[in-house]
Amino acid sequence: MRNLVYYVAVSLDGYIAGPEGQVDFYPVADDMAAWFNERYPEAVPTHIRPHAGLPVDTPNNEWDTLLMGRGTYELALAVGIASPYDHLKQYVFSTTLAPVDNPQVEVVAGDPVELVRRLKKEAGKDIWLCGGANLAGQLADEVDRMIIKSYPVIAGAGLPLFSGGFRPARFTVTQRREFSNGAQVTWLDRVRPE
């Protein structure tokens, strides 16, 4: 069975982006970028790969499917890119977006939980939950693993890691790594009741 993996950057005060979707306040480090480009090349948008030193056809290591909300997807649309991760099957959750003329992008107006449960049963690599906060909140009970890039910065306001109701869930740390910019990456797996 495939896992739903929430791979995301977060500030010390729990925000994945600023109020207008800003992410440029996270401190960048060459060692961190190089390590992640090697470990998770599929997380590098297709159009950015040549600038990151990755061939466009670099194979996916962990994920072959991506889920994102309308707000996350609109960042790509704003710069004229209809398929930001053309090397992945992309599902965009929105009740207002029109269908996209690209076989790699599917706009979904329905229940994200229903789609994730179906995708988990299909063959393939794991599924990357890219963002945003609303979609993550809807899928919180379906998240099997989290890869949290914690940056040593306070945002003060913005989009939270999850939005939604109070639903505590336990995760266990399986790995942690620190980089020269002070960022820590933590891998966590959901603790399932026995």
TrEMBL record:
Q: Which residues form the Bacterial bifunctional deaminase-reductase C-terminal domain?
A: 4-184
- Give the matching Pfam families: RibD_C
InterPro entries given for it?
Answer: DHFR-like_dom_sf, RibDG_C, Riboflavin_Biosynth_HTPR
The protein's superkingdom reads: Bacteria
Name of this chain's protein: Dihydrofolate reductase
